[in-house]
């Protein structure tokens, strides 16, 4: 798999401007209406307009759709069952669907960037809200980009839940009692099968944007699904840029909040620790992407990635450096230690 002309960025909210600046600005083609078509694996059942406060300036549709990932060249799809999904499409009025699309795959239960990270109903925007998800989507819309927020699950049980009181959406993707929403009806195909559904949605996007590549944002488990599309499903044909938010590392943030409330920690050291952990995770992902690009066999790619990452960790351990000290010159021993992931 070739990754030429493809870039992966990490900690998306900070670097999202690079996604736009590095890949050019969107065109300003005009369109008076949204006409979205089905694809071979995605069927639109109903189109529900968003009641967002900014609807006078932006067009937003929550599409109740069924994803039936069943590509002839994807054996894992055979185990998948069709599942419901909400495809929340937003764009500035007068902008064409042929403009560049930005696809969002959220983490957690798959509630969507807007509902999960903005605490707003699907497709909505709340100025000055408590999260960044809706602000990030709105920012792209202001630059004439079309955004797609994929929503696998939309809670409605509490008054502050994203789909509370929304009779059109609340029962379409209800809370999945046996796990996360994106894992529903996978039929044993597991994570790779769930990623194939994301691939099917990307094929649907290309059926509606003239076959163009897209930019993508992934958070936590959403990052994993996007990476699986990239490595397993020839993702270089779908993406030109991917932004990963760092997800799992940031789940430890409540620890920082608790320490800050109960004591007087050195916040600079803590912040550097989090930043270093995100960079380390990004490095591991970059190595895995490289090995996947070197071979079509995913088992070989995995083994190569594990071996390379393990070597970069081991060269910093004392038993290894002591062994090197017996025959290596001091500068060579020091250089090996400095390249280790485990060196202080």
- Biggest pleated sheet: 8 strands, mixed
In CATH, the architecture of the domain at 7-245 is 3-Layer(aba) Sandwich
Strand order of the largest sheet: 1-8-7-5-6-4-3-2
One letter per element, helices H and strands E, the order comes to EHEEEEHHEHEHEHHHHH
Counting DSSP H or I runs of 4 or more residues, the number of helices is 10
CATH class of the domain at 7-245: Alpha Beta
Alpha-carbon Rg, integer: 22 Å
> Averaging pLDDT over every residue, what do you get?
77
Instruction: State which percent range the strand residues make up.
Output: 15-25%
- Unreliable stretches: 1-5, 10-32, 249-262
Per the CATH scheme, the topology name of the domain at 7-245 is Rossmann fold
The residue fraction in helices comes out at: 25-40%
Distance linking N and C termini: 36 Å
Which structural class is indicated by helix and strand composition?
alpha/beta
Shape field: globular
Total beta strand runs: 8
How is this structure best described in words?
- This protein has helices at residues 12-23, 113-118, 133-142, 190-208, 221-232, 253-262, 267-294, 298-314, 318-325, 330-338, and strands at 7-10, 42-49, 58-67, 83-92, 101-105, 146-151, 214-218, 239-244.
- The protein has 344 residues and is an alpha/beta fold.
- The protein has a domain at 7-245: Rossmann fold (3-Layer(aba) Sandwich).
- It has an 8-stranded mixed β-sheet, sandwiched between helices.
- The model is unreliable at 1-5, 10-32 and 249-262 (pLDDT under 50).
